[in-house]
Amino acid sequence: MEGLFRQYISIHRLLMKQLNELLEKYQLSYSLWQVIVYLEDKGTSTLVDISNYYQVEKPSITRRVHRLQDYGLIKEVPSTNRREKIIGLTSEGKRVYQVCRKEITTLEHGVSKGLTEEEQQAAFQFLMKIQDNIQSKEGFYGE
Amino acid sequence: MEGLFRQYISIHRLLMKQLNELLEKYQLSYSLWQVIVYLEDKGTSTLVDISNYYQVEKPSITRRVHRLQDYGLIKEVPSTNRREKIIGLTSEGKRVYQVCRKEITTLEHGVSKGLTEEEQQAAFQFLMKIQDNIQSKEGFYGE
DNA sequence: TTATATAGTTACCTAGGTTAATAGTTACTC
DNA sequence: GAGTAACTATTAACCTAGGTAACTATATAA
After folding, report:
1. Whole-angstrom Cα distance, residue B75 to residue B50?
2. Residue B112 contacts by C-beta under 8 Å, 6 or more apart in sequence?
3. Considering only residues 24 to 63 of chain B, which have any Cβ-Cβ distance to chain A shorter than 8 Å?
4. What are the structural domains, with CATH classification, of chain A?
5. pLDDT at res. B1
6. How do beta strands A86-89 and A44-45 pair?
7. Which of A102, A103, A141, B136 lies most in the core, judged by the most C-beta atoms within 10 Å?
8. pTM over 0.90, yes/no
């Protein structure tokens, strides 16, 4: 399938542009949003957890976390372990999550417009499949 | 289709990593590769053409082009219009294109492994469709 | 108790993108 | 034909986002 990548990548640009425009209204970017999503899912987490999950180096996560702390969207939660830092969403963070989640879901629907439920499922399966293929190609990362 | 974006974006990361590793061997990155591909397709071009095609601002293209000129992969071709700069691949540039094209096509096949020809076609159609949806959402770009 | 591993941070580098301003050239219009 | 407007490429300054290497502090293992 010649040109599959070109297509894929060009869509990625468009998508990120839309997402970042949406998130900009809340002083966020997609990379900050990822941290919020992770914390909403897991409740609390260390920085290393996030680093492993998104396969992004620790210093990058430190930076994201500091930004979100400055914005008051996440906070450190007390812990007995003084080496690791446990973080979680503040109530403002949870509020922002809800608002953005809604907008992003709307955007997803807009993007999937005209595709039947079956086609969307097929698309999702397709993405899963390529992900498998890429990961098995590179001596995959575990979770 | 909740989580479609997450999936899409996480694959993009993996894909770009693979592509850049591949291109690194030739001192290239995906953004430089885009310029080479465009020139291989069109023969020659101005910087504005490339800028419009990829929807990337002109200063970014200026930088890419300078890098490729330094590497000896593209060259300026004479023109009567002294305002615009017409560029094209050097013979070394064409050679590098061929080599990388081959490797990238192999990678594409690897990624599409296990998908039937019909499924690949469906996937491509799916990508086209979302592209349309995104573009019509944002007061599209021409070309 | 000493050595090793881990969590987070800091400093510095790279890639890549953007906007705003500018020089030079071409095209338009009166 | 002269003057204005539009366009091409470039530069400078700035931003996001990632990476590596080196360091501090803490926890774990031997």
Report:
1. 15
2. A1, A4, A130, A133, B120
3. 30, 37, 54-55
4. 4-111 (1.10.10.10)
5. 58
6. antiparallel
7. A103
8. yes
